[in-house]
Amino acid sequence: MKVHESARVSYHYHCKMESQSRRYHRNAHCRDKPVLHEIFLTLEELSRGCTKRMKIAAKVFNDDFRIIRTDEKIITMDVPAGSKDGTKIVVPSAGDVKPGIIPGDVIFVIRERQHPCFTRDDENNLIYKVEISLREALTGCNINIPMLNGEFLTLSTQDVVCHGARKRISGKGMPRGGGNLGDLLVEFSVSFPVELNETQKESINSILPD
């Protein structure tokens, strides 16, 4: 899983947690365990990158390890374009404040929501599956693909398309970093007729070679 520690993260404290934390940290010798939160994002959000504001609560303990208050924090995070499912964004030492213990990190784990049209592979290529008829597979067709940016891309086929064939369109996938983009892979599924009458069979036999 990729970890982003450089993402912009800002805090808005509702209480005086920062000074309390510094006082407890002076003699701290161990770190508390991290706190995990999941963020569910659409493929569109992950494609263009987005900013999310998340509210978390951190408990503040006194020297007897009793909770004296709960501080709320609003954390603003920049999610980089092209981030993958499982990417971690780390907010250092933003967990509970306990005497003699360094607060644990708060870690946000990105989860990708299922998309109705696309999936993506490990190289940030987008995969689009389309079903066409046998006639379209043999004679050609136009396919309008709804892209993540709201536009449509038209793919025209001229040659015979086999079932399971893939067409690669360069630079139409997810961001890879460094200004590079993955590809769009269009995967064809050919739908065959359930039955043919005798006239149709004779027509096909007269057209198609042995």
TrEMBL record:
Alphabetical list of InterPro entries matching this protein: DnaJ_C, DnaJ_subfamily_B, HSP40/DnaJ_pept-bd
Xref: Gene3D superfamilies: Urease metallochaperone UreE, N-terminal domain (2.60.260.20)
GO biological process: protein folding
Entry's Gene Ontology molecular function annotations: protein-folding chaperone binding; unfolded protein binding
Cellular component terms per the entry's GO annotation: cytosol
Alphabetical UniProt keywords: Chaperone
Keyword Chaperone: yes
CDD domains associated with the record: DnaJ_C
A Pfam short name: DnaJ_C
Name used for this protein in its record: DnaJ homolog subfamily B member 4 isoform X2
